[in-house]
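Appendix C reproduces, verbatim, an entry submitted by the partner laboratory led by Prof. M.T., so that reviewers can inspect both the input and the predicted structure.
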Amino acid sequence: MSVEIQCPACGREALLARTPRYEGFRRTGEDLSCSSCGHVFASEADVPFRERAAPAIFTDEDRSATPDVFKNDPRGQLCRYCRHYVVNPFRQWCGLHKREVEATETCARFAARPPDDKKTKIVL
């Protein structure tokens, strides 16, 4: 919440002073006043707060386009999602290149696994 006000009594830009009001040892409310001249406001609705304008430095044209890292496929072209990727308990294997691979490697000859195929094939 803003504490800057335009005081109607003195006409200055000042800060709003909030002082607690007590009845005995119990707090019953707050007194709102101008920190410059001491003018007291009856309620918070009567306080003329200053609106702070946000600086308009950048516009929407200045923003860069959001990059699409995976190009419409969130899985990318990782070996793990290729139809030639084979997993057994001892190694991960590419059936196309006939060599060991890691699940996060990529390949220019990537072929997506059909959706009905299981996620991993276990070869014993």
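The CA atoms of residues 14 and 36 lie 6 Å apart. Additional entries are available on request from the coordinating office.
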